[in-house]
Amino acid sequence: MTYASNDVRPSPPRAAPRLLLRMSAACALALTAGACSGLDSLNPMNLFGGDKYKTEVVKDTPADQLYDQGLARLKSKNYDGAAKTFANLDKQYPYSQWQRKGLLMTTFAQYQNGSYDDAAGSAKRYIGLYPNAPDVDYAYYLQAMSYYNQIPDVSRDQERASKAADLFQQILDKFPKSEYAEDARYKLQVARDQLAGKEMMVGRYYLNQRNFVAAVGRFREVLAKYQTTRHAEEALMRLTEAYLALGLPQEAQTAAAVLGHNYPDSVWYKDAYALLKTGGLEPNEDKGSWISKAFHLG
């Protein structure tokens, strides 16, 4: 998404000139040396007499010029410079379409620069200011991608994966026909798979520590929230293992039966089946079990 530099634009509102009082170079130099004539004391009123200061009128850069400068910097891949230029557009022309364009382009430039936290913050501000703008779906997408690009490996905290997943889901819910919906759907699955992987890692740790109740809690979370991820198969097998260790064979048999029904060719089903056989058991679904209800088996 870009704005063409030759877009037909409405005449932008001109901000009022700002008056800047600047000390003359000669007097400033003299003050540094302690020799500016006529300054016999530090009385601040003396600073406004004579020729010590001059008044200059500094005009804001016209909005269309600032916008084109930002586009030029984007084109030359000076993303940091582009972000600052568009930020000036945002500040100098508040409550206008130029502010809206400037804020969205600031977000894009920050994203391109790899300043993902800044981009996420700018996108959030855009969504708050312009929730009904025609391109607000792009702001959601940039915010989601800013978190998505910072998802760490599964051994670390997955807060960014969770934020990315939430935003991608919002895109699908609020803007199902958006041009970003298809990519959001794919990346939502990737983020959810990462979150499920974290739960599985912790669950396996508890299983190895023989804390079977805690392990069941983690594997249950995977089936409740991330059933469509690739981790669901292993979660069912691990539930078979944990429930057998807890002395709950009926739940173990149900987990294995549901695993076989939904993933009959899975290597995890073969492992679960073999594990039950060692205890003289077979997969047998209890329709009243939470596991069976989670998969809506008839």
Which helices and strands occur, and which strands form pairs?
Layout: E1 18-23, H1 25-33, E2 53-58, H2 63-75, H3 79-92, H4 97-112, H5 116-129, H6 136-148, H7 159-174, H8 181-208, H9 212-225, H10 232-245, H11 249-262, H12 267-278, H13 290-294
Antiparallel strand pairs: 1-2
Helix percentage: 55-70%
Mean of all residue-level pLDDT scores: 85
- Nearest-angstrom radius of gyration? 31 Å
Shape category: elongated
CATH topology of the domain at 195-297: Serine Threonine Protein Phosphatase 5, Tetratricopeptide repeat
Q: How would you name the CATH homologous superfamily of the domain at 195-297?
A: Tetratricopeptide repeat domain
Strand order, biggest sheet? 1-2
State the order of secondary-structure elements, H for helix, E for strand: EHEHHHHHHHHHHHH
CATH uppermost class of the domain at 195-297: Mainly Alpha
Sheet of most strands: 2 strands, antiparallel
Number of strands: 2
